């Protein structure tokens, strides 16, 4: 764990792996066997559960709660107070609770105070708006927000909202108005956009 910074108030349990360049700030608790990649920032009061896997260059803002069963890929942003769940039927008296895995794919961003209900995938470079409750999969490059979170459009890697350029049989061609990058969005995902009424 060379070149790793761990604040003296942080609790790092046995078997935790921290990649080089990662910084762990005040009052963080990282549970047993969690694996965190290189150059990550784990801000104040973050909780990371047993066996959680976090990729490289991930930023977890203050008080994010990442429970067992969550995998976060590279270059992901998790805003302050984001909470991941890991059991669909929690009871204090159940001894046989079932951990349902959740996957956050590369480059995605999740806004402050969002709740992620377990068993879903957040797609590559998608953006979930602050205060959302995510109960279903979010496709790659989708912009989603609300309670429950709904797809409101699609975004470029540079975070600008994509514009529809051409509709084809199985997909829609969308383009970023700023960087001019083009994307093929599958019809099955495109039709999920909730239009203004």
Radius of gyration: 18 Å
How far apart are the first and last residues' alpha carbons, in Å?
A: 53 Å
CATH superfamily: Hexapeptide repeat proteins
In CATH terms, what is the architecture? 3 Solenoid
Structural class: mainly beta
Strand arrangement across the biggest beta sheet: 1-4-7-10-13-16-19-21-22
Q: What is the fold's blueprint, element by element?
A:
Blueprint: E1 5-6, E2 11-12, E3 17-18, E4 23-24, E5 29-30, E6 35-36, E7 41-42, E8 47-48, E9 53-54, E10 59-60, E11 65-66, E12 70-72, E13 77-78, E14 83-84, E15 102-104, E16 109-110, E17 115-116, E18 121-122, E19 127-128, E20 133-134, E21 142-145, E22 150-154, E23 163-167, E24 171-175, E25 182-186, H1 187-190
Parallel strand pairs: 1-4, 2-5, 3-6, 4-7, 5-8, 6-9, 7-10, 8-11, 9-12, 10-13, 12-15, 13-16, 14-17, 15-18, 16-19, 17-20, 19-21
Antiparallel strand pairs: 21-22, 23-24, 24-25
């Amino acid at each position: 764990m060379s070149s790793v910074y761990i604040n003296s108030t942080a609790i790092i349990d046995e078997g935790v792996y921290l990649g080089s360049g990662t910084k762990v700030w005040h009052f963080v608790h990282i549970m047993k066997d969690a694996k965190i990649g290189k150059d990550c920032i784990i801000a104040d009061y973050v909780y990371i559960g047993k066996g959680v896997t976090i990729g490289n260059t991930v930023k977890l803002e203050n008080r994010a709660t990442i429970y067992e069963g969550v995998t976060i890929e590279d270059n992901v942003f998790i805003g302050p107070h984001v909470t991941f769940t890991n059991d669909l039927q929690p009871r204090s008296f159940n001894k046989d609770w079932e951990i349902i895995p959740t996957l956050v794919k590369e480059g995605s961003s999740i806004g402050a105070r969002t709740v992620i209900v377990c068993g879903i995938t957040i797609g590559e470079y998608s953006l979930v708006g602050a205060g959302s409750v995510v109960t279903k999969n979010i496709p790659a490059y989708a912009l989603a927000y609300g309670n429950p979170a709904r797809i409101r459009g699609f975004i470029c890697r540079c975070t600008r909202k994509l514009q529809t350029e051409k509709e084809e049989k199985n997909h829609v061609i969308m383009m970023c108005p700023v960087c001019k990058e083009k994307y093929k969005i599958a019809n099955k995902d495109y039709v999920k956009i909730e239009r203004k009424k």
